[in-house]
Write a structure and sequence with these properties.
heterodimer; A: mainly alpha; 2 strands; elongated; B: 13 helices
Chain lengths: ~290, ~300
């Protein structure tokens, strides 16, 4: 924040630019680490090594390599686990948002554009779902479907589509009555043409802002499910799973639970700052929860 | 009773009904026959069939659903296979702990969040305000299960001043309550800050100052009261998140509440208790929302007129 004042003097929107660039760079580092990290590091995140159990960060392992963040209870390298966990978190976050935003966009646009009973039905379902704590719904559906990557994405998309549907509906309602839409219709454009060419372009910005805000929530939700044992299968290294595994070793190996939590926290706080800045910049009145 | 409250009551019943339906369908589609779970794999098909018949599991699905709804109306969810008591009893035993935890967390969040938000607004743009804003953003987005574990690490393992779990001692509520309060506290700080900043630009604040009122009274009475309306709305919505958070926080701290009962029962495939605790959590959630709606009328007289 100390740098902010200097930059503010240079550029008029310096502060909010920093609010975009710093978190964006942090997110980019995560993406690069998740994509290339496991390849470059060359460690197997699930390879056990009983001789190297519970070594603290910066320890030298029996094969001479350095365990930057230490090892866990069966001697697996924690840094390698974090990188593998980053892959899972980012993949779950991105695919969930893609699925949730497509469902939300389609239903929200239909509700806003068609109105009438379709609107009443869709928004009624959305209201009922909002009347239900989302983690409770996730826990229930996850318990039914069982642990797997696909199921986690499905579960979280089910809990998130409502937010996208609401924004899409509100924006559709706002755009629908604009004169350029009336003009298109007068010229004989079909409903499909109007939705694709007039409504959807107006939805891109607000949906991207909502997606940014939701990204952090989805990643935390995945970690929470994995922590509860309802997310990904036990063998797959996830941040939530590693945090959970480290609970039994808080007394003698604090790093197992701490490190993945720090990785997760830095990512979600960065995304949070980014989402806040984008929301303030593009639409201060955007209702996002 | 005002008309809008009747409407809210009706839609709340719909939510509870929807929750009951979801949990019914969920529990019927989980792999594993509860009769087989109860009797073990060595049971004969006849024994299993007899038990299924005695539980009504051999009836068509919609008959089971109807019976389930009828029994639910009198809060009869059947027997807990794991605990050996009725699911209603299990829920009744755990409910007070969750209420207690939620109330402590709520009081913490409001009593810290409200003054901190006002302070932050009055120091707008200064270092203290920046710090509070960043911390509240972090508090809102940090994963609560990890925050809980870190609190245990510091206060139980390193400093040995607070218990790491359970509910045996009176101070055991502190760590879970702080963990649960943190996201709500952060939301309150952010709302109060932005709400008060907005209110300070309103003409009635000028009027209050012009009347010669002192600054504490202008801020405290005119500013804060007007800003409270949106705060109450969002806090009401966030209370649901608080209940959801209780599911996770109770698991972290082995707190004997509804949330932990739910997670343990899911793991043990104890469907009666899963159904009872989910329905209870949702009833709780819906009730809070109704109270929040009623509070509007108290805070904002315009709502009462519009009815």
């Amino acid at each position: 924040m100390a740098d902010a004042s200097i930059v503010t003097q240079v550029t008029r929107r310096g502060r909010s630019d920093l609010g975009i660039w710093i978190p964006l760079i942090i997110c980019a580092v995560y993406v690069l680490a998740a994509v290339f990290g496991p390849v470059l590091l060359g460690f197997d995140p699930v390879a056990t090594s009983p001789r190297n159990r519970l070594l603290p960060p910066m320890s030298v392992l029996s094969d001479g390599s350095l365990a930057l963040l230490g090892t866990d209870s069966v001697g697996r390298d924690l840094f390698a686990q974090l990188l593998a966990g980053a892959r899972i978190s980012l993949v779950v976050g991105a695919t969930t948002l893609l699925l949730a935003s497509v469902i939300g966009l389609v239903l929200g646009t239909i509700a806003g554009y068609a109105g009438g009973w379709a609107d009443a039905l869709i928004m009624r379902i959305a209201d009922i779902q909002l009347g239900f704590p989302s983690i409770l719904l996730a826990v229930l559906v996850a318990a039914v479907l069982g642990p797997s990557l696909t199921n986690v994405v499905l579960v979280l998309a089910v809990t998130r589509w409502v937010v996208f549907a609401r924004v899409a509906r509100a924006q559709t309602l706002a755009v629908k009555s604009r004169t350029f839409v009336d003009a298109s219709r007068t010229l004989g454009a079909s409903n499909l043409h109007i939705i694709v060419n007039c409504i959807l372009p107006a939805l891109v910005a607000p949906v991207l802002v909502v997606a940014t805000v939701q990204f952090g929530l989805v990643i935390v939700a995945e970690a929470s499910l994995s922590f509860l044992g309802l997310g990904l299968p036990v063998g797959i290294p996830t941040w939530g799973g590693t945090i959970s595994a480290g609970r039994n070793y808080l007394g003698n190996a604090w790093w197992i639970s701490t490190m993945p939590g720090l990785a997760l926290s830095l990512l979600v706080v960065s995304v949070g700052v980014l989402g806040d800045t984008l929301r303030d910049r593009f639409d201060p009145n955007l209702a996002t929860r | 009773m005002p008309v809008f409250l009747l409407g809210r009551l009706a839609s709340s019943l719909l939510v509870v009904f929807g929750a009951a339906t979801i949990v019914f369908l969920a529990m019927r589609s989980v792999p594993g026959d509860p009769a087989v779970v109860m009797l073990g794999v060595s049971a004969t098909p006849e024994q299993i069939a007899a038990l299924r018949a005695s539980w009504g599991l051999d009836a068509p699905l919609f008959v089971q659903y109807f019976n389930y709804l009828v029994r639910m109306a009198s809060f009869d969810f059947g027997q807990s296979l794991r605990l050996g008591i009725s699911a209603g009893q299990a829920v009744a035993q755990n409910l007070p702990n969750t209420v207690y935890l939620a109330v402590v967390a709520f009081v913490m969040a409001v009593s810290v969040g409200l003054p901190l938000g006002v302070y932050s607004a009055l120091r707008r743009g200064r270092a203290a305000d920046r710090l509070v804003s960043l911390l509240s953003l972090a508090g809102q987005s940090l994963p609560s299960f990890w925050v809980g574990i870190m609190l245990v690490l510091v206060f139980s393992r390193a400093l040995h001043i607070l218990p790491s779990g359970g509910a045996e001692s009176p101070q055991a509520v502190l760590l879970p309550a702080i963990t649960l309060a943190l996201p709500l506290l952060s939301v309150i700080v952010r709302l109060v800050r932005s709400g008060l900043l907005e209110a300070m630009g309103e003409p009635y604040m000028q009027t209050a100052r012009a009347k010669g009122l002192g600054e504490p009274r202008v801020i405290g009475v005119h500013g804060v009261r007007n800003m409270l309306i949106p705060v109450v709305t969002v806090v009401g919505l966030e209370l649901g998140t608080l209940l959801g958070g209780a599911v996770i926080v109770e698991t972290v701290f082995a707190w004997p509440g509804l949330g932990r009962l739910l997670i343990d029962s899911i793991a043990a495939r104890d469907y009666a208790v899963v159904q009872a605790s989910v329905v209870m959590l949702v009833v709780f959630f819906v009730a809070i929302n109704i109270v929040v709606d009623m509070l509007y009328g108290v805070l904002d007289p315009r709502v009462r007129v519009n009815g």
